[in-house]
Design brief:
Two copies of one chain form a homodimer. The first copy, chain A, has three helices and no strands. With 99 residues, chain A is mainly α.
């Protein structure tokens, strides 16, 4: 599945609700799912972890849809030609630095 | 770009650092990027918002790599046949419910 297909799938499923909720209301749901992902990473089975990753991706896609952001282009522009910090395909940034 | 390609790109770029950081250390970076996304959604340009979405996706891919979760399969299994709440491709869950 491409990032564009993910955004289209989530738009088909939830766009009318998403527009009504807006970004602020939707962001709260993303935060709840991020919390559930943290819990699953601590104590969950691989299947439970996978389901929580899917939920976080779905809410992230929803917010991108409402904000009219193309996730595919966003990733390609920031990471497509190398690490944003050092420009290398295999990051050589100092271990203490961000990436 | 597919979700699998995103995971492979981030693995190539950061896998040695990611393994050293582990899930807990990596999750802190994800949280920082989520905060930056919130700020960009409030006050940022579309370009700044896109860059923050890319960063959140990159850190989410990193955590999935460390946890050995296949994001593509995770999304297809949870959302591929319809809304997890109502089972419909266009969600009909009550507006007060989660999705």
């Amino acid at each position: 599945m491409t990032l564009a297909e993910l955004q289209a799938l989530i738009a088909e499923m939830y766009s009318s609700k998403d527009e009504a909720r807006g970004i602020d209301g939707t962001f709260m749901w993303l935060m709840e799912e991020v919390g559930e992902l943290a819990a699953a990473l601590r104590d969950g089975t691989p299947e439970e972890q996978a389901a929580e990753f899917a939920d976080v991706l779905a809410w992230l896609a929803t917010i991108a849809n409402v904000a009219r952001i193309d996730l595919d282009r966003a990733v390609v522009e920031k990471y497509g030609t190398g690490c944003p910090g050092c420009g290398q395909m295999v990051c050589r940034c100092d271990a203490g630095e961000k990436p």
